[in-house]
Amino acid sequence: MADVTLKHIASSLGVNASTVSRALDPNKAHLVSEETVDRVRAAAKQLGYRGDRVAGALRRGVTGTVGVIVADLANPFIAPVIHGIAQSLAPRQMLPMVIETNDNASELESSLDHLLSRRVDAVICAGARFSNREVLEEAGRSTPVVVAVRGLPNSVLPQVLHDDRAGGAMAARHLLGFGHTRLAELRGPDDVGNFVSRHLGFQEACAEEALAVIDLPEVGERPIREAGEHLARLLIDVHGDAMPTAVFAHNDLMALGALSVFREHGLTCPTDFSIVGYNDSSTIDQVDPPLTSVIYPGIRVGRSAGEVALQLISDPTEPAPGALFPPRLAVRKSTSPPRRTHAT
Amino acid sequence: MADVTLKHIASSLGVNASTVSRALDPNKAHLVSEETVDRVRAAAKQLGYRGDRVAGALRRGVTGTVGVIVADLANPFIAPVIHGIAQSLAPRQMLPMVIETNDNASELESSLDHLLSRRVDAVICAGARFSNREVLEEAGRSTPVVVAVRGLPNSVLPQVLHDDRAGGAMAARHLLGFGHTRLAELRGPDDVGNFVSRHLGFQEACAEEALAVIDLPEVGERPIREAGEHLARLLIDVHGDAMPTAVFAHNDLMALGALSVFREHGLTCPTDFSIVGYNDSSTIDQVDPPLTSVIYPGIRVGRSAGEVALQLISDPTEPAPGALFPPRLAVRKSTSPPRRTHAT
DNA sequence: CTGTTAGCGCCTTCAG
DNA sequence: CTGAAGGCGCTAACAG
After folding, report:
1. Tens of pLDDT along B165-200?
2. Which of A51, A139, A190, B119 is least surrounded, with the fewest CB atoms within 10 Å of its CB?
3. How many contacts (CB atoms, under 8 Å) link A and B?
4. A18 — contact with chain B (CB < 8 Å)?
């Protein structure tokens, strides 16, 4: 029954397909006599008519879809963002088309291409690495493109971000406020905007106190738990003799990885070390110990990105606003003052 | 530049659009002289041609999309399922179109309608309630429909599920094995397949030991943390004088909610009570105490659902197989033998 | 091997 | 208020 067309309704009623089309479109129904509208609606219902959005899209040139590029759907942090995007599109009967890049910079280009060949009305890229900037900007010349979540410095594209730099600084000040003087970072990839910003913010805040941050020779390739474990081991190997008392992990997954490695090595949190995570993931308040974490407002970022996309669609000439959401800190048990190093 | 069409290439080369179409389709390129193929490809590349999948979809009658209905994108448990679906579709250049129902039975119908009007090649419903059965089966008569995650008893539709009944039984036997005799359930909605099955499995396993499960007069309206809190309070109010020593929460979110309420009331886990969750969510192994949980293989369920959909698309007449994934139990610290009730 | 023709289903002129 | 005609971009069938 999915193949009932306007023509079928039209011929069943002895009118023209155009009339049916108008009668069924709320914005055009006023052009048709009330009586006809009623007859058409009745027939449509009775025949089980269901408009063909594909045909409509071809004719009108808009598909009612927004492409969404994400690094990795399995990372729980991205779900609220997609949720927010979907929420902002739903009232317009629009749908996100989500595609993953496996956090692989080169896959992004083909994903983008795929979305554009499906004629999405706009693209929201929530999984950019720095090297993707030009490809995205190129696409932006013909289709609205919004950069979200992972920022692209110096890009002309509108960006909807969380203020990761302020977040990094906030983490640092929280730890400094406890009196920590030996701090370290477990960094995410250095070609991804939010991790670079978190790093910058953290370094700056420490520099203000004239404190040098303990340097690790590596960053996490991908911001996942294994990277946290790896970097934690590295920290122990390289600085085991003079471990930091405070650690800023660039996200909660990495923090959890580090936590378990430190624990294996007999270190207790927060007695031996404090740790701050990022994202305030859903159950992170109930881990042991409850993790202090910078709150990432994923839903709001998603919703805002969707709104910017909609605005860009309705008026591509007007420069889009962009948005920057401030961080907040959820303070929990994983951070405390450093244990006093007893002078003999 | 997104508006380069086959015609443009054709006229720039002095050939017919059909020739260009054939040359660019890997399955048809052999019908065209190698030389022409090369010229066409070169021109396509140079002009920045990008095929229009919307037009192609209209012409061919297939869109290369699979509609996916979920209850709630914000529930972290669903992300792996979508990930799995996307994975299975990717090699075919197909994309999932995900739509949320807000776990609202009546919204499902309009979501389904929306997807069908976009002419998805198949629908995977991962968010069904029992009352949606007929609507889905009706849709299944004209479009392939796969029921996933949340089963529909007695439905003719192919179903890709996890064996929740065995999972419920497994939770029960684990607790019974420790010698618990006062067991209770914190149930999810009673019109959602997996919760009903978990309930049945749990009850059956207890009945085998001739043990009655403590009854709560309510189930969770939605399977979220707040429901766990609510039911835990109810348990305390109604059975506070003789609390169960073992609790089976129908998912991890509810378990965490219950855990915090019990804790507020001075009860310690696992000393005062054991608790089992469901899904083995991503950070649940690091909460306090690490939660014993039935493992839900979301990615595999998603991947399998995608594969069944693909098979149904390629041959709608052949009855589709369906799948049932067995549960496993992740045993952690939240379960232990009951504290000996000292006889005076 | 290539061109011609004819739509897929819809919506938007342009005429009445 | 309604009808007729044309075409969005592509591809399949049919000729040559």
Report:
1. 999 999 999 999 999 999 999 999 999 999 999 999
2. A190
3. 133
4. no
